[in-house]
Design a protein that fits this description.
The complex is a heterodimer of chains A (287) and B (279). With 287 residues, chain A is mainly alpha-helical. In chain A, 76% of the residues lie in helices and 0% in strands. Chain A has helices spanning 2-6, 17-46, 50-59, 61-94, 100-108, 115-126, 131-138, 147-158, 160-173, 176-183, 188-217, 220-226, 236-245, 249-276. The longest helix of chain A is centred in the first third of the chain and has 34 residues, at 61-94. Chain B has 2 domains: 17-53; 55-276, Orthogonal Bundle (MetI-like fold), CATH 1.10.3720. Classes of the chains: A mainly alpha (287), B mainly alpha (279). At the A-B interface, helix 2, helix 4, helix 5, helix 6 and helix 8 of A face helix 1, helix 3, helix 4, helix 5 and helix 6 of B.
Amino acid sequence: MSDIALTPPVPVTTEAPLIRALLIGVALIFVALFLFAPLVTVFVEALRQGWVAAIDALRLPDAQAAIRMTLTIAAIAVPINAAFGIAAAWAITKFDFPGKAFLITLIDLPFSVSPVVAGLMLVLLFGANSTLGGWLIANDMPIVFAFPGIVLATLFVTFPFVARELIPVMIEQGRAEEEAALTLGASGWRIFFTVTLPNIRWALLYGVLLCNARAMGEFGAVAVVSGKIRGETATMPTMVEMFYNEYLAVAAFTLAAVLAMLALLTLLLKSLLEWRHADLLAATRRH
Amino acid sequence: MRAGILRSPSPLPGFGLSFGIMMTVLSIVVLLPIGALLGRGLMIGPADLWDMVNSRRIWSALTLSFRAALIASLFNLVFGLMLAWVLVRYRFWGRRFIDAAVDLPFALPTAVAGIALTALYAPNGVFGQALAPLGLQVAYTEIGIWVALVFIGLPFVVRTVQPVIEELEADLEEVSATLGARRAYTLRRVILPTLTPALLTGFALALARSVGEYGSVIFIAGNIPNLTEIAPLLIVIRLEEYNYDAAAAIGIAMLVISFAMLLAINAIQTWSRRRIGLV
């Protein structure tokens, strides 16, 4: 039975060191090729003709207008979404009513609809060839190919972000603290601001962060609804497309690099939240 | 309180206000637009809808969107599982960094990903030049669409499987080992079945997202009708021609696919909850 002694020890609850090294190596190569290479390319292409050309590209009136547009859209859509998310989470977690599960499914629905289909829906509802759209245009309140349409498209694609982050957190925290505040005589708003909000602030910030990233980066739905009128309804992502199609590569990639930096900032803040407040977030515990 | 009938025994205030805000925003942003699309479909009628969808170009686009999403999601199933396993089980330099980077496709705008991938894989790009001697052209072919959808779908699989791997009990693996199982056998017969529901959910989420993906695909796809033209692009083209009925027909077909996948995801989760109490 000497061959048993000669067999090297095989790990029983982890993989052999060689397999481990192999798996780590393949994973790193995969991440480098599929995630890092595209990210690096954005910055390389933006700086292909040097810093001056890149900064000049950002000074183009169309680029400036697109940046202003994107910031304005996010400044309007994100607070509306946060208000909706808080209201939905309060109604769903603090009260019982029939059809709750169906309602949660409806709130999640926009995530499974193609952004282009979302844009199409808004065009069919508010476009010039619909009754409602015709009336709105006759009364000088156009929605499609105008600012309100972009806000609605952005709201649609970011719809579940805040609500789906808050609902699990608030279900777990229960109603007892709020009910205690109520028996002590606090008003509804006081309960919300002094009891509920401190409990959900990190989850709220997390949801707002993801919502903002998507609001600034949305392309498909906004492209369909905005009509991509430069200087008027073009946002940063749609302007990236227009520059790119006009072979203004440096302008396209510079604007894209600004969006990529925003994405990196979002990832950084998100990771910080996850490391420091993991126990107060739904995302790091759920699934 | 307007919604008085629905009012629950909860003593907390604010039901009317919060329920009212929720239903108002939900109606304007989600329900009315979906209603407009479905209403348009009803006005056109099922027979005409079918006639409009039943053309070679639309079938090619719909099957391409579905096939490419399926291939990319299968690829992500394998590599997403591997990545999640490596991130949870092994300790190596830069692990936290890689972990954070997995969410890059969620954070990076799709149009940015689209032009970056195209620049990489175009015939004069870094990867394009490297692959050319192998006779492999990625940009402006269906392979380019797969690459874009792998990028988009990866975090769905990793982020669904990762928490389940974290919660695996070491006892099971030890028991399996003391009963004489080799590591490969334990992985296949003990660990993989536990991960299956999460894997299926992640796969379905990636698939649902990839089928409707537009921004990252249109730059790299080449957009040749019948070959590399995806369904969402065809909707955009029909809208630009002011052919709203045809756009609505394709949109309804895609909405039906989305609903079917949403139901599938729910079914997987119900099944797994009943089976092992894990999601």
